[in-house]
Amino acid sequence: MLCLELNHNDVLNMLPDRNVNSHKGDFGKILLLCGSRGYTGAAALACMGALRSGAGLVYLGVPECIYEIEASKLTEPVIFPLPDRSGMLSEDALVEILKRLPGMDAVLMGPGMGCSDGTFAIVREVLNVFSGPVVLDADGINLLAGHIDILRGRTGQTILTPHEGEFMRVGGRLELGRKEAAMEFAAQTNTIVLLKGHNTVITDGNDCYLNSTGNPGMAVGGSGDVLAGMITALLGQKISPLEAAACGAWLHGAAGDICAEEIGQYSMLPTDMVQVLPRLLK
């Protein structure tokens, strides 16, 4: 099967119109469960990626031990502390998370989250309970190693955004080739897979996009956190999951290309990509 490639006009045409009578609730309420002790930047970058991609309301739940750090970094999201253990979210955080889920349009789990019994319990329960779309990135994917069956019975759509190492950790077969492996995994797990790398592959197992934007300067910690936040914001604006993932990948790579041209690949940072995103969404 041939894979489609998006261009800038395709992406802009997929974005929802902004009615003059609209309000912030019309552009998505999204919940981000991110961060742990030592990984405060992941949560902040995911939030900024979401906010710069048009999310109306961003809620960030973080371990209590890093709440003050996140609150000092960020002004636009609604940030709230959750029970933690050893610097990561504990299972006790589920009480508050489950209260908030019904009002959300999309959820992101994983960036900087860490791997523990507590974070696994949270990922498992949210996937089981929440009927809307969920983005799993980084540790949100790593936590599913050996537990991939959790994904198959979901009523809502799940988007996985692995790099190749994470993809193989949860059972992806790269020996088939990147496109073929991503399509097989997506079909077998009832998910959308965004397999990062040169010519990122985005597929639901039937249809497929190849992304041609991006450059090696984006291979820096935090870049994927921005992308995960962007995709979650697009989901919150009711873009279909496959198109939200494809649009997010295109915009993320195009922002990286602007940074590479203006700053250079050696010096560009994920925060630079966040700053140039508005140029692509006008």
The helix/strand order is HEHEHEEEHEHEHHEHHEEEHHH
Mean pLDDT: 96
Helix content: 40-55%
CATH class: Alpha Beta
- Distance, first to last CA: 33 Å
Looking at the overall shape, the CATH architecture is: 3-Layer(aba) Sandwich
For CATH, the homologous superfamily is named as: Ribokinase
Strand content: 5-15%
Write the layout of secondary structure elements.
Blueprint: H1 8-14, E1 29-33, H2 40-51, E2 57-63, H3 67-73, E3 78-82, E4 84-85, E5 88-89, H4 94-100, E6 106-109, H5 117-129, E7 134-136, H6 139-142, H7 149-152, E8 158-160, H8 164-169, H9 178-189, E9 192-195, E10 201-203, E11 208-210, H10 223-236, H11 241-262, H12 270-280
Parallel strand pairs: 1-2, 1-6, 2-3, 6-7, 7-8, 8-9
Antiparallel strand pairs: 4-5, 9-10, 10-11
